[in-house]
Amino acid sequence: MSGAEQIKNGKAVIGIEFGSTRIKAVLIGEDHAPLAAGVHDWQNELTDGVWTYSLESVRAGLQDCFADLMKNVETKYSVKLEKAAGMGISAMMHGYLVFDENDQQLVPFRTWRNTMTEEAADRLTEAFEFNIPQRWSIAHLYQAVLNNEPHIGRLAFMTTLAGYVHYILTGEKVIGAGDASGIFPIDPAACDYDAAMLAKFDELAAGTELRSEVSELLPKIVPAGECAGRLTAEGARLLDPTGTFGAGVPFCPPEGDAQTGMAATNSITPRTGNVSAGTSIFSMIVLEDNLSSVHREIDIVTTPCGAPVAMVHCNSCTSDLDAWFGMFGSLLREAGVDMPKGKLYDMLYSLAAAGDPDCDGIISYNYYAGEPVTGIKDGRPLLMRSPDSDFNIRNLARSLVYSCVASLKAGMDILTEQEHVKLERIFAHGGFFKTPFPSQNFLAAALGADVTLMQTAGEGGAWGIALLAAYMVSRGSGETLVDYLNGKVFADMKGSTVSPKKEDIDGISSYMKKYLSGLSAVRAAAAE
Fold first, then answer.
1. Is the entire prediction scored with pTM above 0.70?
2. Average pLDDT, the chain
3. How far apart are CA 493 and CA 514, in angstroms?
4. Residue 521: count of CB within 10 angstroms of its CB
5. What does the pLDDT average to over 358-366?
6. What burial letters (b/e) apply to 283-295, b meaning 16+ CB within 10 Å?
7. Closest CA to 239 of 347, 439, 87
8. Contacts of 306 (CB under 8 A, 6+ apart)
9. Do 159 and 97 meet the contact criterion of CB atoms below 8 Å apart?
10. ω into 308 cis (within 30 of 0)
């Protein structure tokens, strides 16, 4: 059946992901290959010291992205997108989205990028004996309780961005296991919120203005592969105000961007992992065994199926690099050279590849926001160098690219050197790899492992959530997600793999020694 016929007959599947800078929709066919896409660019806002997105921008972005998908489908296939076999919603994990009993938002959305919950995260980590990062939803909730914020007494429901979008489209207050693991710790055996930790939280919150047990506030977890609701008539009007796209489409459980990245790279079995790199950068390493101790730099989340995953999440990745590269582009324009962005990036990445392996003492800190992995409380991009460094464009460009993976390496070294976690396959995806050379090579050197970019790496999490929706629609009786991905999606998928070179490993190791020793200066600058 052709792509046009699949679309006309409602056989295609749609995945929509809310990334930090782009909302993307991907339509896939029965062979799981993308048929069409739609995009909407957006940005978070720093409002009263809080990184946020308004719910108005969420709704407007959803409509514009879906309208772009519908337009592109009609242009390419001469058919209208009126129905689909299934849909799924994914978004940035964590953060704080809370509502009263009438679904009125109580405070502006506090995203993963905020580092305002240190006291709560520390107390919960001690009480649970389980690492609770600052960006987790439960840390935001408990910090609001500690702050005695006025809205706490009215709180009736909290969720993630994916959970919210799923709710306004289906009316169901549910969540996937992976996204849930960034709200509150999960018991892998039960694939549900950890009952003992729920009870401990209620003890900690006793006597405060929080009126409900925490379990009553959280979205219900729906296992991967099950239907988590259907598009309502109201949801269809929100998605497509023209009325062309109809109600009734089944939805898979909403998931976090970390989990859709795992699905999109087929890294959901032990010793596999993936790195997603864009505005933020994080690794997801599927564990064989529990870690020997609690590490504040490492989160324990889950796969879409609820299996434990070690996650190293860094708040900053490409923002500072983009700012520098943009400045170089503006300099060229001042000189009368209008170089296209793609060509500019290719040139600067090539220069980075030609730099000294250790950047000759030029160290870049890309902290647009606070970075808990390295103990930086507030955003403070900074460039440092020794007076005798060879300060040239090649070494500067290489340092800027190194900075995108430096915080990740600091956390991953704990996993590999202290916990002795073995890495067999690392897949990479995200905007950082749009120019694969040398970003892919530098990541391989930082991790000391082969790194593979799949053919579909550019489709990212929108394709990943579409795969989870396709699994819901097409899975066989007893067929696991692992079996489905291995047998029906990735069996013939090709990718490009690079192995780390010794000179790059030695170079970035030398760079990291100076990077880590200079953190005290960054902390001092951030404290001013």
1. yes
2. 95
3. 40
4. 14
5. 98
6. bbbbbeeebeeeb
7. 87
8. 177, 178, 181, 186, 188, 191, 223
9. yes
10. no
Q: Indicate left, alpha or beta for 366 from its phi (over 0: left) and psi (-120 to 50: alpha).
A: alpha
How confident is the model at residue 455, as a pLDDT? 67
The closest of 284, 526, 254, 230 to 427, measured between CA atoms, is 284
Using a pLDDT cut of 70, give the percent of the chain over it: 99
N-term to C-term CA, the chain: 63
Backbone conformation region of residue 248, classed left if phi is above 0, alpha if psi is from -120 to 50, else beta:
left
CA–CA distance, 512 with 358 (Å, rounded to integer):
9
Report how far residue 311's alpha carbon sits from residue 131's, in angstroms, rounded to the nearest whole number: 11
- The label of the residue with tokens 């790496």 reads 457
373-403: per-residue pLDDT in tens? Answer: 999 988 999 999 999 999 999 999 999 999 9
Q: How many residues does this entry show for the chain?
A: 528
DSSP letters spanning 462-500: HHHHHHHHHHHHHPPTT--HHHHIIIIISTT--EEEEPP
The residues, ordered by sequence, that sit 6+ positions from 506 with a Cβ below 8 Å of its Cβ are 357, 358
What tokens were used for 141? 């909730």
Are 96 and 115 contacting, i.e. CB atoms less than 8 angstroms apart?
no
Q: What is the residue type of 416?
A: T
Angle at 80 between CA 76 and CA 81, to 5 degrees: 100
CA–CA separation, 141 and 120 (whole Å): 8
Query: How many CA atoms, within 13 angstroms, populate the side-chain half-sphere of residue 465?
Result: 32
| Listed residue (133, 404, 184) closest to 294, CA to CA | 133
d(CA 125, CA 146): 15
